[in-house]
């Protein structure tokens, strides 16, 4: 409990010091090439007028007034914002499709393992019927053999006049 309280106090103290806004450095306007501009994550290079400007953090994406997406560079000079958005959307879509496929596959496997399906029940019934018929045939065969033994006097415990001949 005390460690949780200590962590909470530290979080509030550290969070309180970071919540004060510090002015952004004006180094973006000093950059003259794309490579020097995009080294800072706060800067955005625009190829329409070859200028480096502060990234508009008030918006998710730079507005057309700041710089058109096809001419804006951020992070690296060889990828524009349109390609970056398309690539990120494709990556996110692929991850979502893969994740949903894995979830569906796991759900189907769990459902399949939870109980026997109709095919397994049908096969089990057929197996039981075959086993029962086999036992009936064995009983019939044994009764026929016993009848034949009685007829020819081959019963070991019988009182019939004929016994099996034994050589000594």
Automatic annotation (TrEMBL):
Origin superkingdom: Eukaryota
Name of the protein in its database record: Pituitary tumor-transforming gene 1 protein-interacting protein-like
Native organism: Muraenolepis orangiensis (Patagonian moray cod)
GO cellular component: cytoplasm; nucleus
Keywords recorded for this protein, A-Z: Membrane, Signal, Transmembrane, Transmembrane helix
TM annotation in the entry: 83-108
Compositionally biased region (Basic and acidic residues): 121-144
First and last residue of the signal peptide: 1-19
């Amino acid at each position: 409990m005390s460690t949780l309280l200590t962590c909470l106090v530290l979080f509030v103290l550290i969070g309180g010091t970071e919540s004060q806004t510090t002015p952004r450095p004006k180094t973006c306007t000093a950059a003259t090439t794309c490579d020097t501009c995009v080294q800072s994550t706060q800067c955005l290079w625009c190829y329409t007028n070859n200028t480096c400007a502060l990234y508009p953090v008030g918006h998710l994406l730079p507005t057309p007034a700041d710089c058109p997406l096809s001419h804006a560079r951020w992070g690296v000079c060889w990828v524009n914002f349109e390609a970056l958005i398309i690539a990120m959307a494709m990556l996110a879509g692929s991850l979502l499709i893969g994740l949903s496929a894995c979830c569906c596959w796991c759900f189907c496997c769990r459902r399949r393992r939870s109980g026997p399906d109709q095919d397994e029940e049908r096969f089990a019934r057929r197996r039981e019927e075959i086993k029962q018929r086999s036992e009936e045939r064995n009983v019939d065969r044994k009764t026929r053999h016993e009848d034949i033994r009685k007829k020819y006097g081959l019963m070991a415990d019988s009182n019939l006049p004929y016994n099996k001949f034994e050589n000594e």
